[in-house]
Amino acid sequence: MHAMNTGYGFIGLGQMGMSAVRSLLAQGQRVVVYNRTHGKIDEMVREGAVGAHSVEELASLLSRPRIVWLMVAAGEPVDEMIFGPEGLAQHLAPGDVIIDGGNSFYRDSMRRAEHLQERRIHLLDCGSSGGLEGARHGMCLMIGGERAAFELAEPLFHLLATEDGYAHVGPSGAGHFVKMVHNGIEYGMLEAIGEGFELLEVSPFGLDLQQVAELWQHGSVIRSWLMELAAHAFARDPRLQAITGSVGGGATGSWAIEEGWQAGVPMLAIAAAYALRLRSRQPDTFAGKVVSALRYEFGGHETVPSGAAEEPACPA
Hints:
Layout: E1 8-11, H1 15-26, E2 31-34, H2 38-46, E3 50-51, H3 55-60, E4 67-70, H4 76-83, E5 97-100, H5 106-117, E6 122-129, H6 131-137, E7 139-144, H7 147-160, E8 161-170, H8 174-201, H9 209-215, H10 225-236, H11 251-262, H12 268-279, H13 286-299
Parallel strand pairs: 1-2, 1-4, 2-3, 4-5, 5-6, 7-8
Antiparallel strand pairs: 6-7
Helix pairs in contact: 1-6, 8-11, 8-12, 8-13, 9-10, 10-13
């Protein structure tokens, strides 16, 4: 049974969070927002959201059963926002639903859901993919948790997801487990694209990398959204001279590798891609530049400006 729409709570107004809120507002939804940095609250209020300057105020501005989407950094920030002295658990009531839409470790999600069960508050762990474009126009959502809680929150998933882009994949932890594996696969794909373009870049033919990326989008076996983003990146900076090949991130991939090894799955390609991501933070490689540029294209992830560049092509 779906919840009557009385508006949704949204905590965490980073790039993904703000894009998701804008998507909901564009669809005529009432969204109550909270962020530790109040300037972002004010920005969203100007765009039509309802501002709350504490978690308690956010809860008071929603009707039950309240549905609150949490989009904050994995680890301690999630625990603090849920279980801290001013956290959601202190201000929600039995039957309310918290959705953790960040990249939390799936075992943490299982633990949090179990603790919240004692208060009869539901936790759904929701792996979110699609980058900034997805947050604006439709994400892919992998959701774990109690089926009844999923059904309560399903109208929100329908609003935020692309067509056929959300699914209840299993009990608590399953959503973030699936997203963890997704990110491991992503690491391998990014590294393969980066290495391929490095070989093209050093060839004796003076190849136009944007042309090749666009060509491969038409009928080739490796056509993909990532290849489309590669073409965008090369259009902006044909030899990626304005950034270094230092690639950030890595937590979800390292979790996937460890889980794979514990389960007897070798994870060879993903482990190599993760090792090379660490390698990228040492002296520069063109493959690292490609991966860094792609991560900026799909997720707005920070790039490291090249010291040789007068002005970075991408905002830091």
